[in-house]
Amino acid sequence: MPTKSEVWLAADALRAKNELVSIRTVRPTLRNGGSYRDIGPHLATWKKARTYQPGIELAGLPDFLQTKVVQAASEMWEAAMQAATKHLETAREQAAAGVAIERELRDEALAATDKLEFEISILRRDVERLTAELDEAKSKADSFQAELMRIRSDPPDPTRARKEAREKSRKAWDKLIRELGEILRRLPADSAGLTLDELLEAITPEMRQFAHSKGQEIDRRTLQKKIATRVLHGKYVTRVGDYYQGIVEDEPV
User: Model pTM?
Assistant: First the structure.
């Protein structure tokens, strides 16, 4: 929310540049912006204190004429205000400020419509994304619950657990290195292949996410070890010097 001082400084700066002072012109110059209802009351008090008359100032009159016109208008205003009761004076000021705000809000409402519609479309996309994430989270929670029930009904066997973990790791790395093999096979025919570091860079965020979901982390040392095992068994990739090349598998393992 802008302070009175910030609004007044912005209004003074616009007036010094002989530019129109209004909520529409003041708002973009504020560091943190602000709503029309926040800016309006401060700007109304500024216009009164500065005896701001945009029709006179922007008309291009000589300074001495502007001064005389403004002075005459100020004297007439003061005479009228003194003729009113204190109650009417307060009511009139409040009404004038309210009318000025409402008029500017009305004039700028149409201009803000497109922006609001754009923001609404973004919010709708966010809702759709969050709904999808919630559905995914519920699905994972159901899987975790089912796994928890299975574990509770079936006491853990350390030997079997280790075997299952090794098999899970093997399948995950088989899938990852098979995908790397496909990347290598898509290289131009005259390509020597990719080095280990280049293969590491070729791993996509989706592949890393898959590995992480299977409890595996991909680093240079681990990748080199896992590829070496597949090269030894003639699966997915082969090595020629410092380069790795893809090989054709009859049936994916």
Answer: 0.35
pLDDT tens, residue by residue, 79-127: 766 766 677 777 778 888 888 888 888 888 777 777 888 889 898 999 9
- Would you kindly state where each structural domain of the chain is located, as residue ranges? 4-111, 158-246
Report the distance separating Cα 105 and Cα 152, nearest Å.
Answer: 64
Distance, in Å, from the CA atom of 37 to the CA atom of 98, rounded to the nearest integer, reads 10
